[in-house]
Specification:
It comes from Bacillus capparidis. By secondary structure, the protein is mainly beta. 0% of the residues lie in helices and 37% in strands. A hairpin with a 5-residue loop joins strand 6 (73-74) and strand 7 (80-81).
Length: 132
């Protein structure tokens, strides 16, 4: 059964899609996209969602990120959205030659950086789409 505007008063379980470009650091930026974790909530109850993932692979590296969205903000179409903001985990400025992947931090050996991000969710879905 699809969710209609009146269904939002029943606080259904749902997730949100998001797509955000990070700040530009050391000549590059990353794409953050994914789905929030499920949460039961309505347009007006100020519920939040946990979100986490790995940014796009750019400049020979990636960053991890995680956070909790801002509270639900009602939209004129009868749904709602959430604001997302934060910063990524650190990554080396230059790619590290590790034969099997992974992350190795050694204090003082190489410079590291992070990116900030700010955006909002845009689509409400019941579950992550198949083959996403």
């Amino acid at each position: 059964m699809p969710l209609y505007q009146s269904d939002w008063e029943r606080k259904p379980s749902h997730v949100h899609a998001y797509r955000i470009i990070t700040s530009k650091e050391i000549g590059h930026y990353h794409l953050i996209e994914g789905f929030s974790q499920p949460s039961n909530g309505s347009n007006y109850d100020k519920h939040t969602h946990f979100f986490a993932g790995v940014v796009s692979f750019e400049n020979g590296h990636y960053h991890r990120y995680y956070g909790i969205s801002g509270p639900a903000i009602p939209s004129v179409d009868g749904t709602h959205y959430h604001l997302l903001s934060g910063s990524t985990y650190l990554a080396y400025n230059e790619p590290v030659d590790i034969p099997h992947g992974g992350v190795v931090y050694q204090e003082g050996e190489k410079e590291r950086h992070r990116h900030s991000y700010r955006g909002k969710t845009f689509e409400i879905v019941g579950n992550e789409p198949l083959n996403w």
